[in-house]
Design brief:
- By secondary structure, the chain is α/β, with parallel strands linked by helices.
- The chain is 48% helix and 15% strand.
- The protein is built from 36 helices and 23 strands.
- Strands 1, 2, 5, 6, 9, 10, 11, 12, 16 and 17 form a ten-stranded mixed sheet that branches. A six-stranded parallel sheet has the order 20-19-18-21-22-23, with helices on both faces.
- The longest helix has 26 residues.
- Bound molecules: ligand 26V.
- The site of ligand 26V has 26 residues, from helix 7.
């Protein structure tokens, strides 16, 4: 069945009639919100028509299905993106213009679902987009957090968190599937009983919660393929306590309901940092159990109770350890509800599950207190104990007497449940997200497991969807590419490489520069609207946008700017190419030092702005509330992409890929996917500085940051400025904590554990070189920028998904 694209006139007609039927008004007297909803419904109709066209095909073709389980899906706004995937963007744009609708204002009315923290959540969203584009049957499963990641405001230089009530006006894109609700059980105790001569187990006296699914459609580019993102919402089974209610205790009557519904109330704002909160464990089991129950119901409808077929018909992917309780949950259902024995259930479970690790930071590897798990999930805990008993017995055969090693590999050890060990032991494959990260997993994080079964460890480099991050976010560049190399790159992003010869074409480089300039203008307008500040589009736009974390070293960036400021202040003849340094970063609400770094950035900003000459060459902007839609405006405008993590710490990074695709040049360390970017563009088209991961490892015992302080006067100077009142005249103690952490360490930890001072000098030299190149060899600079775009095709998530599918999932594309 072919679904025709709407013409411009049909689009206009549909919008006008939706306004009439839903709101009883005309275009001229509709509010922006009403117009947004009318346009969204028009687009949604088109998406759902394509869903209808492909509906049932997966079952007819008895195709295997992927369940991608993730605590986060940072999908971003849907409306403009769907116009792109419907391959009808121009018709929609013209229709809106002709109706006199101001497009950007209407697009901005769409609330952004902030159902994620950063890279891990955004990766899941890019993956869904690619799965649909490649027509692979899949469902994303997550939690319908009522409050997404907090909205950030900067007040007096400090971060302030505000609730993100993204559902308050409803969600035009979701469809409630109350008919597919399931029940999730917590607490209680396990009772043994005998049935047909076998010992069986059941949970008694438990607390039940209803999981209600809401689906959001994800349309494949230029196709009828629609996969769903399923978001689970917690609902109380008994809405109120009727007896209390009748006694007039109205508040008490709804207390239980509130408590239960807290499960899907809020997304925890921790990124690469764990906090062992019981509510988060509840969230994780809620997501895991609901998703596995649904998957088995769906399987059974088509294939009956033929559980041995399960690994041929579905595959679960756990995105980091957050949904890993799905593993014992599948065991539980197969044994307690479907009557399988342990060995059979274990074999099926292992063949159904795969795991991707996204961080090697020790503090981000999840471990739960055993007592918490036992109380909250008694039956799951029993299963984990038995898994652990069998695992340790096998490990003892492999490593007799090596107790320390067995302790490191165990699921239960030292009163904790070690979720990463659960994942490695109980899944078919463990994946890293870049070359260097996969090496570290094999050689360090999971070296014991790797020695037993090296085949199990795969490395598949992350990717990003070029549909959102190039076609949607940067239409000017997309059009220029079409003119130069045709449009095959839209379906085959590796065809971007056809652009390579144009790097040497002066006329093309000019056009490329014009596109960049127009994106800088668009960014300038956005910043003015967003926070009332002006930026100069004629300056170098230098961007570091990512979560705030010590290992990402925003601190090194701002100290580098301070060094530059000092040079300018000291020497009236010192000049550099004018640059605008833009930071976008949210700090986890409880991460004190990260929040202090935000304040520092804003204090340096004020200092520079007060100096007449320095402010001509340096401007700092802290972009409020960095999120997916802000990234869509920010990234296409960037000249310079800052990727400064301490080598060995950033698993991959994906922002680095987005900047590159949009023609920004990277300054960065040999870390995460920067390594692959370096391999793609070659040393002359990237600015690499700093220690390698091996050098970092070798320095832990011997590094003394005080040595740098003593021998490098410029470094000493900026450190002193942290405590001498230069930056905070009213409160000279403000940044003492940072000073102390860099020079002396805290709580017994080493000083400067992320080697900020160590790498600062080589960072400053690389920045200097970059500025010189931009200003004095601008042709060469543009050539680098073009080459970066040309070489970015390999970082399209279509490639990543094709590799996951070949090596792990083995799904067949649907024939539509
Ligand atoms: C996430 C969460 C979210 C839910 C609740 C608790 C919790 C605790 C820890 C984490 C860690 C998330 C790890 C993460 O985001 N890793 C990033 O993954 C990106 C995609 O692979 C990768 O590009 C980044 O380098 C990596 O830091």
């Amino acid at each position: 069945m072919i679904v025709e694209r709407l013409t411009k006139d049909q689009i206009k007609e549909s919008i006008v009639s939706k306004l009439q039927r839903h709101f009883g008004c005309e275009t001229s007297d509709a509010t922006d919100d009403q117009i947004y909803q009318a346009v969204a419904l028009t687009v949604r109709d088109e998406v759902m028509k394509r869903r209808t066209a492909s509906r049932g095909e997966r079952k007819r073709q008895q195709a295997k299905k992927l369940y991608y389980l993730s605590a986060e899906f940072l999908v971003g706004r849907a409306m403009h993106n769907n116009m792109v995937t419907l391959v009808n963007e121009n018709a929609y744009m013209e229709a809106l213009d002709e109706l006199g609708i101001e497009k950007s204002r209407i697009f901005e009315r769409e609330p952004e679902p902030g159902l994620g923290n950063g890279g891990l959540g955004r990766l899941a969203a890019c993956f869904l987009d690619s799965l649909s584009a490649l027509k692979l049957p899949a469902m994303g499963c997550t939690i319908r957090y009522e409050l997404g990641l907090f909205r950030q405001r900067i007040v007096d230089g400090f971060q302030v968190e505000l609730p993100d009530n993204w559902l308050k006006n409803g969600n035009s894109w979701e469809i409630c599937r109350a008919d597919q609700a399931v029940e999730v059980r917590f607490n209680g105790y396990v009772e043994e009983y005998v049935e047909d001569g076998r010992i069986k187990f059941r949970l008694m006296n438990y607390n039940a919660v209803q999981a209600v699914p809401y689906d959001m459609p994800v349309l494949g580019y230029d196709s009828n393929m629609v996969n769903m993102l399923r978001t689970w919402s917690a609902r109380s089974i008994t809405p109120i306590d009727m007896q209390e209610f009748n006694r007039g205790q109205y508040v008490a009557a709804t207390e239980d309901k509130e408590l239960v519904e807290a499960i899907s109330k809020v997304l925890y704002p921790e990124d690469n940092h764990k906090e062992g909160k019981e509510l988060r464990l509840k969230q994780q089991y809620f997501l895991s159990s609901a998703s596995v129950q649904y998957a088995l119901n769906d399987f059974e409808k088509t294939y009956g109770p033929n559980w041995h077929m399960l690994p041929d018909k579905l595959v679960f992917h756990v995105n980091d350890t957050h949904p890993s309780l799905a593993i014992p949950e599948l065991m539980r259902i197969l044994m307690d509800e479907k009557g399988l024995g342990w060995d059979e259930a274990e074999d099926i479970t292992r063949r159904c599950f795969n795991y991707t690790n996204h961080t090697v930071l020790q503090e981000a590897l999840e471990r739960w207190p055993q007592h918490m798990m036992r109380t909250l999930l008694p039956r799951i805990y029993m299963i984990l104990e038995e898994m652990n008993r069998r695992l340790c017995a096998a490990l003892f055969d492999a490593f007799p007497g090596q107790w320390e090693r067995i302790g490191r590999m165990a699921i239960l050890a030292y009163d904790q449940v070690h979720m990463a060990n659960l994942c490695v032991a109980m899944t078919s494959t463990t994946n890293g997200v870049s070359q260097i990260h996969s090496d570290i997993l094999r050689k360090q994080t999971f070296k014991d497991y790797c020695s037993l079964d090296p085949q199990k460890f795969l490395g598949i480099t992350n990717g990003i969807t070029h549909r959102r991050w190039l076609m949607q976010a940067n239409p000017a560049l997309a059009n220029l590419l079409n003119e130069a190399i045709g449009d095959s790159w839209r379906k085959n992003p590796q065809d971007l490489e056809k652009l390579l010869p144009f790097a040497d074409d002066a006329a093309f480089r000019d056009e490329f520069a014009k596109v960049k300039y127009s994106n800088k203008l668009r960014l300038a307008e956005f910043i003015t609207r967003n926070q009332g500040e002006a930026i100069d589009p004629n300056t170098i736009i230098d961007v570091q946008a990512k979560r705030l974390h010590e290992y990402k070293r925003q601190l090194m960036n701002i100290l580098g700017v301070l060094v530059l400021y000092n040079r300018i202040v000291d020497n009236p003849n010192y000049t550099v190419a004018p640059r605008t340094y833009i930071f976008g970063a949210k700090a986890s609400a409880g991460y004190y030092r990260a929040k202090l770094i935000i304040k520092l950035i804003n204090s340096v900003k004020e200092l520079v702005a007060r100096h007449p000459r320095a402010s001509q060459m340096i401007k700092i902007v802290f972009l409020q509330n960095y999120c997916v839609s802000a990234a869509e405006t920010l990234i296409p405008a960037a000249d310079v992409s800052e990727q400064l993590s301490t080598a060995g710490k950033e698993a991959s990074g994906t922002g680095n890929m987005k900047f590159m695709m949009n023609g920004a040049v990277t300054i960065g360390t040999m870390d995460g996917a920067n390594v692959e970017i370096f391999q793609q563009v070659g040393p002359e088209n990237i600015y690499i500085f700093g220690m390698s991961a091996d050098e970092v490892d070798a320095s832990y015992g011997s590094y003394r940051s005080s040595g740098i302080y003593e021998t490098m006067p410029e470094v000493r100077r900026v450190l002193e400025q942290l405590i001498d009142g230069t930056l905070s005249p009213d409160n000279p103690h403000m940044f003492q904590e940072l000073y102390h952490a860099l020079l002396f360490g805290d709580g017994g930890g080493m000083a400067d554990p992320y080697f900020v001072l160590k790498d600062l000098p080589s960072y400053i030299s690389a920045q200097y070189q970059l500025g010189e190149d931009y200003e004095k060899r601008h042709d060469l600079w543009l050539r680098k920028a073009v080459i970066n775009t040309a070489k970015s095709g390999i970082f399209a998530s279509d490639r990543t998904i094709a590799e996951y599918n070949e090596q792990i999932w083995h799904l067949n594309p649907l024939e539509l």
